[in-house]
Structure formats: structure tokens, C-alpha cells
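Budget justification note: compute hours in this period were largely spent on complex prediction jobs such as the one shown. Inputs:
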Amino acid sequence: MLMNNTSKLIVGNWKMNTTLPEGSLLLSRIIKELTNFTYPELVICPPSTHLYAFSKELEKSKGPLNIELGAQNISEHEEGPYTGEISATMLHNIAKYVIVGHSERRKFFNESDAVDGKKLQTAIRHRLTPILCVGEDQQERSDGHAKQKVLDQLNTDLAHVTSQEIKDVIVAYEPVWSIGTGNFAKPAQVEEMVWLIHNNLIEQFGKMAGSKVRVLYGGSVDGENARNYLNIKGVDGLLVGGASLNYKQFAKIVRASA
Ligand code: PGA
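Corresponding output:
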């Protein structure tokens, strides 16, 4: 758990939703809804087509509400013939964070742990803060393999990260069966997995470095349940999908975390 720091990190993942005009409107509504609200760090991960315009927009509106931008994915490669991919260099001065290994990337784009491990390293090399997503699917949970699945993902994806670098990595526990389903994870289930992750990080990187890593929870988080998840010991913030597209819901989640 993040020591000596009680502020929670809220990340909104818009996925493949909104055109640029719709996204700009949503961003301005979020900012307006949270006017006069002091918040250390709120992260929005819009589609990549929005990042540049949003970065300019946010430069103008810097205030007590600090919104940073994140990308939803990056290429593991530096540059070259990789049609459709976005490199870490392209995100310089535009995004500060990047989601790595989201279950939708793993499922629909066949991203393996080996590839996600490389993406993570690319992000670190370029000083982007990676948000590494891990979590089991329904079958793995029913079969009693949930813990092993998450440990395998952590061990493989973080295999080449040093204890110097791990401090700048964020891990999100996202049970796949709860993402976008309204199938709420019980607080006890979240607590058990979040501590499994914290302990694994300490085991892999030592107490000094491992205990500094923030662990978020994600999966059907909304304005109603956000506080319950944030109150779980070991949960350092939330990764929000669907509810981040609704400015009132999202603002409610942010307020719950203050
Ligand atoms: P959800 O998505 O909040 O819609 O369940 C979470 C995520 O995919 O990160």
C-alpha cells in the first residue's frame, strides 16, 4: 500500500467511446462539475485521437483540480513499420500515464504477458507511468485459479522491471468477470486479491520498493459503490470504465475519493 499518502488515484478509461467533439464536451463537463474541488491527481484516458487537443485544453485550465492524461495502449516497439500503432515517443508531452495489458487488449488483440511486459518496459523507458492491469476471468475464478492467474501475470509482466523502476508502476486489479458487467466484486474478494498483489510486489522487489507501488481496483465501479471499494485496506485508487463516460457519475466517484 502506498505509505504516508492517503490520496487516492482515480483513473477514467473511456475506451473506444466519443468523437473528439463529444469527448471535449465530456471533459469540460467533468471540469465544470468539479469546479473548486481540490484534487491532487485525476487521470483521464481518452481515445488517442483526443490526447493532443485535450493536453492543450488542460494546459489552459490548470487549477486545484489536476487532471493528467493517459493513453489506453502503446506499442512495445520504438518506431517503424507497425501500421496503426502508437509509440511512446508520440505521447511525449501529451500523456503522463499509459494503460498496459487491459483485459480487452489481452482478449481481443491477443496480447500476451510477454508482449505486455515489453510494453511496460517501453513505457518506463519513456517516463510514462504504466498502469498494469491484471485479473482472472470467470472460469479461472470458478476453478479456484484466480490467485495463480494474477501471480503468473505479475511475475511475467514485471520480470524485467528493476526495484528502481517498480516505484513508478501502478497495478490495477481488474477481475475480468466484473468489467462492464455490473457483476460487482465483493469487498472481501477485492481485499484478498489486492493484498496478494501487494505481497507479491514486496516479494519481487523488496519492502522498500514493493510497498511504494499503488494498487487500484477496477470493475463495474460507479458513483454508488466507489466509496466502499476505496475504503478497502490496500486499495489505493480506482480504474473506472463505463462510469467515467458519465460526468455526474465520474464526479461522484472523484468526490468519494477525497
Ligand atoms: P468498467 O470497466 O468500469 O466499465 O467495468 C473497467 C475497466 O475496463 O477498466
